[in-house]
Design brief:
The protein is α/β, with parallel strands linked by helices and 153 residues long. The protein has a single domain, classed as Glutaredoxin (3-Layer(aba) Sandwich), CATH 3.40.30.10. It is built from five helices and nine strands.
């Protein structure tokens, strides 16, 4: 279980734009790493669009927004284009990073048990240290809450 003050585990994942994202390559920048369940769903679209709408404010804080789900790069491409998302979406189809960050969890809905992504956001500082962890995220107001946490640093 990751905690505030831990070094963020390094990883490498494909992005929807065809590039490969390596966390270690972005030292010197704050990273807002948000994990979300599924492209093109109402809650995930609302969350992504909220980060999009606050994108300039995050950039002013020298923060890079990165979304991760288990969806394919093709799904991410469609999702990003449809919603004009200006930040990277990474594909973790084998769920290694989801498990590494502890967001792949047993869930229950309508009496059915299954594994899925628990909506979670990590704020990582310029040195690669986790400074905030937002778990069981509620979409409304979340991007503003994350932005406020950057102002506190």
């Amino acid at each position: 279980m990751l905690r505030v003050g831990d070094r963020a585990p390094d990883f490498e994942l494909p992005s929807y734009d065809g590039s490969t994202f390596r966390l270690k390559d972005h030292r010197g920048k704050k990273i807002v790493l948000y994990f979300y369940p599924k492209d093109h769903t109402p809650g995930c679209t609302k969350e992504a669009c909220s980060f999009r709408d606050n994108y300039d404010s995050f950039r002013k804080k020298d923060a890079l927004i990165v979304g991760i789900s288990a969806d394919s790069p093709a799904s991410h491409t469609s999702f990003a284009k449809k919603n004009n998302l200006p930040f990277l979406l990474l594909s973790d189809e084998d769920k290694k990073v989801l498990k590494l960050y502890g967001v792949w969890k047993k869930k229950q809905m309508y009496g059915r048990t299954f594994y899925g992504i628990e909506r979670t956001t990590f704020v990582i500082d310029e040195e690669g240290i986790i400074r905030r962890i937002f778990t069981k995220v509620k979409v409304n107001g979340h991007s503003e809450e994350v932005l406020d946490s950057l102002l506190e640093q």
